[in-house]
Amino acid sequence: MSKVITDEKQIDEILERGVEAVFPTKQDLKNKLMSGERIKLYCGFDPTAESLHIGNAINIRKLAKFQELGHEVIFLIGDFTAMIGDPTDKMAARTALTREQVMANCKDYKKQADRLIDFKDDNAAQLKYNSEWLGKLNFEDVLNLASHFTVQQMVERDMFEKRIEEGKPVYIHEFMYPLMQGYDSVAMNIDLELGGNDQTFNMLAGRTLQKVINNKEKFVLTMKLLVDPTGKKMGKTEGNMINLTDLPEDIFGKVMSWSDQMIALGFEICTDIPMKEIEAMTKQMKDGANPRDFKMKLAHEIVSLYKGKDQADQAQENFINVFQKKEGPGEDVKEIKVDSRNIIDILVESGLIDSNSEAKRVIKQGGVKVNDQLVEDIDLQLASGKTHLIQKGKRHFVKVIV
Question: Cβ atoms within 10 A of the Cβ of 292, count?
Fold first, then answer.
């Protein structure tokens, strides 16, 4: 068992950086951490997609900070709760997932998170699945859990109020999600749960259940979300999410597409750059420095964190060549031979796009160029005997020999 570190400076950093709120209070949690007692904490990740994303990574990195202090950390995969679907911030019920879909989605989660948190050493993070206990609850158990909450508490949640006002349905099973997440804390006998501030209601449900069932106080730490100036978080629904499986150049390009107002927040919650440096950069931008330069640094830091410095250097060079010097994708772009002259067939055969229907959609949306010319005709035939540079979006290139 690792020795618990009680260095006040480190504890203050953990409780301040990127943190939105702590329940019951930040001082109470600090006192607990300063006492030298080893606490058990977790964060849950519902496998609703095949890749973890940058929002997940923010919470994983915070888990790792507690792990470095010697505390017991659990990386929980919500394989049961993912089949229900978290209604948080959703203006319609989530589409139900089968167990097969859920397990296929999370098969590489540990591998993806391994760069951010330690699963191997003496104080290794534990990997758990909440179907282990949620799948064993019977109807009587669920009724007992439900007895600790009121309908008024549930319908007061913003997204439920909005749906009711708009005449949209709110399903009973959506009320059950906070109970299920709350029971995770009871089953694992948790001291602290951390998650995004959009999870506050669900995490406090666990605080309630931990108190009434285990007679134990549970701390809740909510993290700031990576949001744009309108308050929208980066997410799968919005289509601007950075997945941990994305290519380095895609991650770099997506960060460069963020608004200037997101730079300081991005540095705070997505990197380890000291806060004093972030404050200095923020001041320089206010004094007239070009935000692009700081955003470039942010993109490099994020790619380095997930893919390594060499990949970050290469992604930055590629971005500068393609978007600043307008030199195109460089000499190392993939080159293939194709049999068809049809642009749809070529896009699919080259691997730029997965299906004919997707290729047609991207072309209609103005997302494909051939030799730097926008493609508008889905029946376009390329000249044979020549090499053509195909571009999808801003960052994907391939050379094809027809």
Answer: 12
